[in-house]
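User: Second chain of the day. Same drill as before.
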Amino acid sequence: MRFEKSEVERYSICNGDLVICEGGEPGRCAVWESEQTAFIQKALHRVRPYANINTKYICFVMRHYAQSNLLNEYFTGSTIKHLTGQSLSVILFPLPPLAEQHRIVDAIKSAFAVIDEIERNKSDLQAAVTSAKQKILSLAMSGKLVPQDENDEPAEELLKRIKSERDKLIKAGKIKADKREKDWAITRDNSHYEKLPLIAVCRLFNTAESANGTLPYLEVRYLRTQSSPDYKQSGRYIESGTAVILVDGENSGEVFNVCENGYMGSTFRELLISKEYDERFVLLFIKHYQHELRESKTGSAIPHLNKKMFAELPIPLISIETQRRIVGVVNSQFAILDEISSNI
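Assistant: Same format as last time:
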């Protein structure tokens, strides 16, 4: 920005000057702390205190006034508030001796330092809670969270029932045969569980449009926050307790359990889960891979769930009883971590 010679003195600020907002957030202020001279625009006031006044003390007082709404009586304007130079010049400030000003500033700085450290610790603890949850899920999906049950049936027997259930669904027209099914194979990694591609036990399903009266529109904002929903007369009807997954948008792969009857949002697909699997276990499994799903989205303008990756995720091939034991332990440990998080 170009300044005329006659404007240099008026709009220049130097080390120790206090700069105060005239509009926008009137009263917001900061001390310029640099040996480099800078220039301000007309929407800012420059305050250069007399000797024996600590500029940072005046700054803290001004911030207190602004945050406590004590400046409101000095503002002009109805729609857009302004703190004019004339108004600023008549504001009264408590002015203790200079030594006391220094002590006040030092005390405030010390308190702010403690607060900043607490906030950093909070962030570290929140990150630790998130990391702990991921570790618990990792142990759960690798067979290291609950003891193995020697009485569990062989994985091959469970797979037979899963395939039989799939054949019935195909015959009934509920799902279509998938060319990847010929590649279904029990695998084992470094975990204690044998694995199967997720598509063998969980498919994406798009319910048909129907008119079931006035019902809430279950879109992602509402499911996340339980804020006031919009209502529709028709749509893709789903019942309370249905598991759905977000397939479009930045957070593709996020899963929800619907808590009421309604019409499913356009960015969701229903999860059609095998009767051999506990829905809660499948949702925990998908949450375990949620970061990978989010980072592997397809599409450029509108990100989409990577359905190929989703279908090939290796889900443990374990009895429904073992699944339920895992869900119980995970939920118990998550409850402890949530209690810690809520008290941070």
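The chain has a mean pLDDT of 88.

User: Great, on to the next one.
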